[in-house]
Write a structure and sequence with these properties.
Elements: E1 9-19, E2 22-28, E3 40-45, E4 50-51, E5 56-57, E6 61-64, E7 67-69, E8 72-77, H1 82-88, E9 95-102, E10 114-120, H2 125-135, E11 158-163, H3 166-169, E12 179-182, E13 189-190, H4 193-203, E14 207-212, H5 215-228, E15 232-235, E16 251-253, E17 259-261, H6 262-265, E18 268-270
Parallel strand pairs: 10-11, 10-14, 11-12, 12-13, 14-15
Antiparallel strand pairs: 1-2, 1-9, 2-8, 3-6, 3-9, 4-5, 7-8, 15-18, 16-17
Helix pairs in contact: 4-5
Length: 285
């Protein structure tokens, strides 16, 4: 696991381009630790990070790392409010405060099991860096993951992505060979991504499921995997004020009692640790 010192870094935006309803924000981060797939960073614009007449500051926002290559970090963003809007509008040369990578990421499937990546909406972000890691471990120094060797016949990951509409589904082009489900049938399968998941598990249940998306989708994935006795790792999202466990703002109930803090016990949590996924613990759309 990568560990970050609890000190912010000032990064420079290298590119910002729209992709349907989303934005891909890229920042130079040559001195930052290489993130594990599934980890996140607390981001805040260096300037104009506030609202109202008095520019009351926003809290830094947690975003999953979508890709890390050649000293550049990429994030997939959606404008869902004033703070995310400010990040979405950043231009080349503007600067961002970054604290991370933070939290616990994904762990590779054991030999004999394939990886099934299941994403919904903006929650596809951490699955992109995970597909990179599983397809080409340590490519370009991006992800230091020893998940394949000469004797390992583990198949390439299968990617299942679900979206509300065609505009959001355009982000599927970031992935290699994804299967896509869209609510209105404008692209790929008409229906939910969990229908694709059930079909894949019927075809071959020897899998480990990795999922991130809205809470309702994550709960459906958790229930399907529990019913089919398939292990699953869920990347949760919850309101984080600090990112390193001090505020308890992102606590979710544990199956056997007590609570897990999404920021340090996750964001990737074994589905067996949860009796259900809380309504607030999924990616916003």
């Amino acid at each position: 696991m990568s560990h970050a010192s609890l000190r912010r870094r000032l990064l420079t935006v290298t590119a910002n381009h729209g992709l349907g309803a989303y934005v891909v924000l890229r920042m130079a981060d040559p001195d930052g630790p290489a993130p594990d797939a599934g980890q996140f960073t607390m981001l805040a614009a260096a300037e104009h990070w506030g609202g109202g007449e008095d520019e009351r500051p926003y809290l830094a926002r947690a975003f999953s790392v979508a890709r890390f290559q050649d000293g550049e970090t990429q994030y997939l963003l959606e404008d869902v409010g004033p703070a995310s809007r400010r990040l979405c509008e950043l231009g080349t040369g503007e600067r961002v405060w970054a604290l991370g990578p933070l939290g616990r990421g994904f762990t590779p499937p054991p030999a004999g099991r394939r990886a099934l990546l299941v994403g919904g909406g903006i929650g596809i972000a951490p699955l992109l860096i995970w597909q990179d890691a599983l397809r080409t471990p340590a490519a370009n120094g991006a992800v230091q993951l020893d998940c394949r060797d000469a004797s390992d016949d583990r198949p390439r990951p299968t990617v299942l992505l679900g979206f509300r509409d065609q505009e959001r589904a355009r982000s599927a082009t970031l992935f290699a060979d994804p299967q896509v489900a869209v609510d209105d049938g404008s692209v790929g399968h008409r229906g939910f991504v969990t229908e694709l998941l059930e079909a894949e598990l019927r075809r071959d249940p020897r899998a480990v499921v990795y999922a991130c998306g809205p809470a309702a989708m994550l709960e459906a994935v958790r229930a399907i995997c529990e019913r089919e006795h398939v292990p699953a790792q869920l990347a949760l999202e919850a309101g984080m004020a600090c990112g390193f466990g001090a505020c308890y703002g992102c606590a979710v109930p544990r199956r056997r009692g007590g609570y897990l803090r999404v920021c340090i016990d996750g964001p990737v949590i074994d589905a067996a640790e949860l009796s259900h996924v809380e309504e607030y613990a999924g990616a916003l759309e």
